[in-house]
Design a protein that fits this description.
binds NADP nicotinamide-adenine-dinucleotide phosphate, elongated, 28% strand, 2 domains, seven-stranded mixed β-sheet, alpha/beta, five-stranded parallel β-sheet, 304 residues, 17 strands
Length: 304
């Protein structure tokens, strides 16, 4: 069984930065990723707030970070971690492909898309219902779509779709957006219509999405809005299955609680990035990944 000093679960910005920092301490480091490298970072259309880059696509930044991390650490993608078992001083990791032994584990498992939970959402997934404008937007060029949500993700997706020539409108359940001011300004500047105070009650169609039933909470009125697609961007839920198995302390929303050094309540288990909640910013995920790796380094050095 291969042995490591640090195994990192998840390869988003937090996981890749943890790998870079850990590998550079001459620690034998492995990143395990159940899907493709980059996690949710890969689907961010454009970042304008990652220091050092005025404008960069998430996928491009992931590729740069991955190449840098690979100089110091191993990365295995499409390998799902199923079990983490603490056995005295060592930790056994079981995946769907292999088993490993490590001294420390950094959980950087991130978060996944929250669903609306309305009729039609599952039925039309991939047939008009989507969660990622960057991935699925080009299919809708010249056609009409609705983006649901009022946060940064929803507004960014709406702007991206508008950029590529999709006829987009936003649906939000309240009368004000949660998204940052600069995004709201851009939405207004481009005259992107917003259905305020509106909840999606049903996504309708035969083979593909044809319309959405909206319920205006203020007027009580229900309207069937014709549309070719629905992009759902209503937040995230933490991917905390492994954290639960490890009995890590979680907050009321299911995010892993850590101290400032990214240590969890379980010795030699650290958490970094979106799995810890907070502001979900790329730069914050990177910094948490770096801190987690340095804490693992310190703890291994003193034999904690
Ligand atoms: P978010 O900020 O949590 O916003 C979720 C939005 O969806 C809110 O407007 C919420 O409405 C709405 N919503 C939630 N459940 C809903 C439901 N069942 N039906 C209808 N609407 C619902 O989520 P996010 O936009 O995905 O962002 C997640 C985190 O990543 C945030 O911390 C965000 O700041 C960060 N982020 C940052 C950037 C950036 O460029 N800086 C980009 C993307 C994301 P209410 O407002 O009424 O609660």
């Amino acid at each position: 069984m291969d042995e490591y000093d640090v195994i990192i679960v998840g390869s988003g910005p937090a996981g890749l930065t943890a790998a870079l920092y850990s590998g550079r301490q001459n620690f034998k480091t492995l990143v395990l990723e159940k899907a493709l490298v980059g996690g949710m970072g890969s689907i961010v259309p454009l970042l304008e707030n990652y220091p050092g880059f005025e404008l960069i696509a998430g996928k491009q930044l992931v590729d740069i970070m991955k190449d840098q991390a690979l100089k110091y650490a191993e990365i295995k993608d499409r390998e799902n971690v199923e079990e983490i078992e603490i056995k005295g001083d060592s930790i056994k990791i079981g995946t769907d492909k292999s088993e490993y032994i490590t001294k420390t584990v950094i959980l950087a498992t991130g978060a996944k898309h929250r669903q609306l939970g309305v009729p039609g959402e599952d039925k039309f997934l991939g047939r008009g219902v989507a969660y990622c404008a960057m991935c699925d937007g080009p299919i809708f060029v010249g056609r009409k779509v609705l983006v649901v949500g009022g946060g940064n993700s929803a507004v960014q997706q709406a702007l991206y779709l508008d950029n590529i020539g999709v006829m987009v409108a936003l649906v939000h359940r309240r009368d004000e957006l949660r998204a940052e001011g600069y995004l709201q300004d851009e939405l207004e500047k481009r005259d992107i219509p917003v259905f305020w105070d509106s909840e999606v009650e049903e996504i309708r169609g035969l083979q593909v999405v044809e319309s959405v039933l909206l319920h205006n909470k203020k007027t009580g009125k229900k309207d069937e809005i014709p549309t070719d697609g629905v992009f759902i961007a209503v937040g995230e839920i933490p991917s905390n299955q492994l954290a639960k198995k490890l009995d890590l302390d979680l907050d009321q929303h299911g995010y892993v609680i850590t101290d400032k050094a990214q240590r969890t309540n379980v010795s030699r288990i650290y958490a970094a990035g979106d799995i810890t909640g907070g502001v979900n910013q790329w730069v914050v995920a990177c910094s948490e990944g770096a801190v987690a790796a340095l804490s693992a380094y310190q703890d291994i050095q003193i034999g904690k």
